[in-house]
Write a sequence for this structure.
């Protein structure tokens, strides 16, 4: 997808503040409001902009304990992958599930209230999924840079 500098600037501003008014956005990127709106709508239609989200405070939503979990499967079959992915789709604690290359097959981002809640997820949910061979947990100590919306 070929985006010019103005479109990239629109995307940067929207990534920082998805609720900005079109008038303010147009002013920041140096376009008329109608031209800016046309560009935004075009990028929405083409799927460049896939949606808008609210950024939540993890401490106030009971999800301040973040763990990245590397998961290895015992079998490298399509059925094992599909089964694992379905189980993770049903687990509310899992906010990201990535099929990765390397020693492990999956990397999860798990958000829960605290260590006991993670232990319950680890034991009662992840530990009961068929074909899981290895689980390695990486507890997040801090996030000096996090640009996810």
């Amino acid at each position: 997808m070929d985006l010019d500098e103005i479109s990239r600037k629109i995307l940067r501003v929207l990534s920082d503040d998805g609720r900005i008014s079109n008038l303010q956005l147009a002013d920041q990127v140096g376009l008329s409001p109608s031209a800016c709106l046309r560009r935004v709508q075009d990028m929405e239609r083409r799927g460049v902009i896939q949606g808008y989200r609210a950024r939540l405070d993890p401490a106030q939503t009971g999800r301040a304990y973040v763990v990245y979990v590397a998961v290895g499967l015992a079998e490298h079959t399509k059925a094992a992958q599909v089964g694992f992915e379905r189980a993770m789709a049903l687990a509310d604690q899992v906010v990201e599930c990535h099929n990765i290359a390397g020693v492990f097959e999956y990397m999860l981002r798990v958000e829960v209230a605290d260590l006991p809640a993670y232990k319950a997820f680890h034991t009662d949910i992840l530990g009961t999924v068929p074909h899981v061979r290895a689980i390695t947990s990486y507890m997040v100590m801090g996030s000096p840079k996090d640009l996810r919306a």
Summary: The chain is about 40% helix and 20% strand. The mean pLDDT is 96. The longest strand covers residues 65-73.
